[in-house]
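in:
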């Protein structure tokens, strides 16, 4: 947490008194003149009552008119004690290299992929998938490597068992990674134009192919948002059609739009997840998104 009131006071930003845990000031996004923008007193949330919620760090950068590096210095200076302790204890990727568990895909892995409509031999070759056996921490999973700039930095494992007692997806711990999986995007190396299509899961991205990356869930981290903003000028969200996922896409899109990106939320009128598209639908979607 940060002392948001102290920051606003010391930087001369006009604001209202604290009311029910919120302090209001002008929203920097919508031409606000009446203090519609609200910070929680902990500095963890910014919400404009006119244009919605925005990323806290980008909002502070705009209100204070400072660079990203300067903002990090400000955040460190104005951290509360509990926040400082959390920062000191934050998990960090520390490995110089990692080794994938498992080996070549066996029949059980191939069968799982085939039943989902994938070509297992193509995926194994293109995305370097591996399979694990019946023992170990990663047992009965398809291992999905995560590369960044050609280097293996982390991985995720997808269970091939129909077992609700274990998580479908398991990601390598941050400390055991070269770069945390949530600091990059799966398949980002294939996105070589100024546009990126963003999906939730790795099989969504693998279904659609080059130019499509995934965030490993609907929640995007600040690091992922900054990476996208640095590398691309346009982002298209293709999340699952469920209402909750679409709301998350809108929220993440708002954060990217605040950084100057052109953002679209794809509405292709499909009633199933991108990972379940047929081959004909893949051709249609790639054409609609101008990926080929």
């Amino acid at each position: 947490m940060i002392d948001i009131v102290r920051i606003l006071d010391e930087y001369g930003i006009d604001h209202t008194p604290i009311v029910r845990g919120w302090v209001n000031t002008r929203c920097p996004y919508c031409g606000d003149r009446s203090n519609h923008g609200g910070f929680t007193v902990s500095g963890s949330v910014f919400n404009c009552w006119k244009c919605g919620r925005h990323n806290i760090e980008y909002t502070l950068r705009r209100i204070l008119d400072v660079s990203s590096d300067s903002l990090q210095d400000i955040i460190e200076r104005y951290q509360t004690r509990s926040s400082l302790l959390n920062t000191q204890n934050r998990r960090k990727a520390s490995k110089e290299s990692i080794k994938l568990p498992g080996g070549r895909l066996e029949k059980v892995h191939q069968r799982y992929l085939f039943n989902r409509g994938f070509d297992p031999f193509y995926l194994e070759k293109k995305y370097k998938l591996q399979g694990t056996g019946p023992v170990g921490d990663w047992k009965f999973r398809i291992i999905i490597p995560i590369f960044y700039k050609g280097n293996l930095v982390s991985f995720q494992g997808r269970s091939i068992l129909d077992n609700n007692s274990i998580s479908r997806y398991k990601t390598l711990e941050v400390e055991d990674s070269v770069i945390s999986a949530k600091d990059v995007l799966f398949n980002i190396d294939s996105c070589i134009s100024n546009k990126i299509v963003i999906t939730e899961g790795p099989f969504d991205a693998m279904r659609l192919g080059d130019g499509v990356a995934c965030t490993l869930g609907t929640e995007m981290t600040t690091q992922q948002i900054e990476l996208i903003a640095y590398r691309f000028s346009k982002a298209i969200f293709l999340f699952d059609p469920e209402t909750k996922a679409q709301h998350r896409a809108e929220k993440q899109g708002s954060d990217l739009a605040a950084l100057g990106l052109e953002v679209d939320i794809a509405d292709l009128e499909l009633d199933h997840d991108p990972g379940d598209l047929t081959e004909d639908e893949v051709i249609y979607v790639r054409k609609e998104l101008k990926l080929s």
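note: The first helix runs from residue 4 to 10.
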